[in-house]
Amino acid sequence: MSATYRELRERAFTANMEIPRRGLAIYTFGNVSAFDRDRGVLAIKPSGVPYDRLSADDMIVVDLEGKVVEGRLRPSSDTRTHIVLYASFRGLGGVVHTHSTYATGWAQTGTPIPIYGTTHADHLAEDVPCTEVMRPDAVEGDYETETGKQIIECFRDRNPLHTPMVLVAGHGPFAWGEDAEKAVYNAAVLEEIARMAFITRTIHPGAARLPDALVRKHFDRKHGKKAYYGQK
Amino acid sequence: MSATYRELRERAFTANMEIPRRGLAIYTFGNVSAFDRDRGVLAIKPSGVPYDRLSADDMIVVDLEGKVVEGRLRPSSDTRTHIVLYASFRGLGGVVHTHSTYATGWAQTGTPIPIYGTTHADHLAEDVPCTEVMRPDAVEGDYETETGKQIIECFRDRNPLHTPMVLVAGHGPFAWGEDAEKAVYNAAVLEEIARMAFITRTIHPGAARLPDALVRKHFDRKHGKKAYYGQK
Amino acid sequence: MSATYRELRERAFTANMEIPRRGLAIYTFGNVSAFDRDRGVLAIKPSGVPYDRLSADDMIVVDLEGKVVEGRLRPSSDTRTHIVLYASFRGLGGVVHTHSTYATGWAQTGTPIPIYGTTHADHLAEDVPCTEVMRPDAVEGDYETETGKQIIECFRDRNPLHTPMVLVAGHGPFAWGEDAEKAVYNAAVLEEIARMAFITRTIHPGAARLPDALVRKHFDRKHGKKAYYGQK
Amino acid sequence: MSATYRELRERAFTANMEIPRRGLAIYTFGNVSAFDRDRGVLAIKPSGVPYDRLSADDMIVVDLEGKVVEGRLRPSSDTRTHIVLYASFRGLGGVVHTHSTYATGWAQTGTPIPIYGTTHADHLAEDVPCTEVMRPDAVEGDYETETGKQIIECFRDRNPLHTPMVLVAGHGPFAWGEDAEKAVYNAAVLEEIARMAFITRTIHPGAARLPDALVRKHFDRKHGKKAYYGQK
């Protein structure tokens, strides 16, 4: 392993290890990548390797064509989806795909997660979007690239930095952020939002969405120009 | 850090660390304050700092005007809600706000948690109350103070020492107690009550409330003049 | 502490510590007693003491009149319910009361847990029974003794050794066994049965009970004259 | 203990210990066997021994007639079901039976688990099948052998290597694989699939199955001739 990508591999590794630590996946489910936009490369988890056998040296460095730049193992089978997201969405430094239980449960219904409360509005100002179910001809094509395209299509009128997560219908969640650590944070928040929404929906199937004024207030409190949450 | 507020900061810190230990919040969600009524100051968690990086020295000491008396960091964005509660409710020594999963799931329905059983009645003698959804003009004002006012409004005909918890509609739970430790205890009990009520409601949507005689008996067994639970 | 009841206190203590270990209660909820039928005394948890501060020396030894024979603290407020069960049911060596989440969720519906599967039938050959809701006049009397009487009433035509658990309507579960360890085992099994039945009921509200032949087979495989489960 | 079956016993023991580690069963529920097809023997968990008291030397070696070849204890009461599966399904090296909570919850409804998403399709290309409820005359016969026969009957038109799991109606799941480790993996995946399907069904009772093209794609990505998942 060269020293060139050491820091990038370390970042990807640390973020991947958060997946089991946060209970977001079992066995080999899920993968995180860290992106170096200047060099045009990402470091990503190898395919099918369980978290408890993973090391930073196992991370694979791949360019935006999908070519392996460094690494002994085969990269995650979802690598091309990550690439589409980095190529299409500006400002992304990390992408995460998991099969976390509640977010996947919602993705399997093929419907967005309604914005029921402020936990949700603290992180995005709309329902968690859900893509269309992939058409058979797209499935037969370059499947992982098509998955990325579906997400892009779903975000045609959305700002991916304001809505840093999506459900792929019948599949599961993707989340992203300015770096890999933030991307995993968003994936964990999505799982918690999905759990709360499941509870709300089960208690009261007709529960109302949070009024717009409250959505705006909570989102801006953390993300707006006059944000006053946190230490900066 | 001066020695003046050391004990108050320690108390606030210990109570804040109970939040992740009891599984009541992830990341930075949730905050606890400890109140020194004689000095008119509270110690509270800093805004946006994760529990695993928190120390007692990070606690912020704030007066009832919201002015920072001691501390390097910015206090929790919910500080003004805590202040309203201390200023309005007598006998409070601690206040907790969490986004615990089941209590938040109920808060998102905008309805009280029905008093279905004795676990609930051991701690309060009525449904867990739920505030109104905040009106847009209040949201646009001093939001965190307005949140406090909504709770006060909801408790106009209630004794906050007998009902030490509330759901803020579309948001999440607040709980309190004679000290910060007791406040976190009430927050944890609320989450458990919310979980049990979710189960009861899902099994049998028309489940009946606990009869008044049983509510009274259980509440008085622990809190009445002839209480005989515990060691005092 | 005398040596006379050391072994009994130890047994009660060990069984009580299984309550938090098995996730059957938070804080001070729940209590276990161990019975010495020859001496006519039971050792039970003190009232309101959290599990993480409990020691074997804290156990209280009480006779069947409810008189404290040995111990510095006040016994569990549910002691008289335990006494009624030991006095009325032959062969009991341990009694447990918890507020475990799913069993309590069912108790709050006031209905028995249907015998949906073999996990259930391995332990009892009928629905988990549920008492009537206590009438107001009984509540006003000796409440804990009345709770015991309700259970006895519910078991008028039942064999408590074949059905070692019950739901007290609006309250929570009691379980028992030939010794305190077995009683806690039955309480943990009840919680698991309650969880499975919650899932079955939610997926398919009209799910059928297990046919009688299968109920009989599973129960007898473990408990019948020709039992062939286990090592004896 | 002879050295002859040491490796087989070790393999069975390691796989059995995964059951509590993965949260698939409490107490003595569940059992795993490892099969040595050349010698025609399997090593299996002893009946009724809790996992925390289990050692590799406790494993029982049994032949396909059910005769104990080596071991001091009585083998799992489910041994004959394991034997039927090894005798009927080619290529099996491990069999697992658990009472894992969500899979059992589904088994108790007597219905298959619909293939709602790609987590499911990554492992099998159809609903998780569910046997018929056993008829009374079969129950009265050699019960454990009959359980095996029911599974065989259910797989008359199925490939057990492509669908490595089943629900026994009113009872619980069985899973298998090319070795004991893979069998436990499949049992854990089944529990996770069952959990996700519970959530999907509860949110939206009419949720659609995953379209065939996606089912095929995901299954073949991992198991087809052109599989490209993992490191081989």
Automatic annotation (TrEMBL), chains A, B, C, D:
EC number per UniProt: 5.1.3.4
Top EC group: isomerase
Ranges where the Class II aldolase/adducin N-terminal domain occurs: 10-198
Gene3D superfamilies registered for this protein in UniProt: Class II aldolase/adducin N-terminal domain
Entry superkingdom: Bacteria
Keywords: Metal-binding, Zinc
Cofactor(s) needed: Zn(2+)
Chemical reaction(s) catalysed: L-ribulose 5-phosphate = D-xylulose 5-phosphate
Family from the record: Belongs to the aldolase class II family. AraD/FucA subfamily.
PANTHER family tied to this protein: FUCULOSE PHOSPHATE ALDOLASE, L-RIBULOSE-5-PHOSPHATE 4-EPIMERASE SGBE
Name recorded for this polypeptide: L-ribulose-5-phosphate 4-epimerase
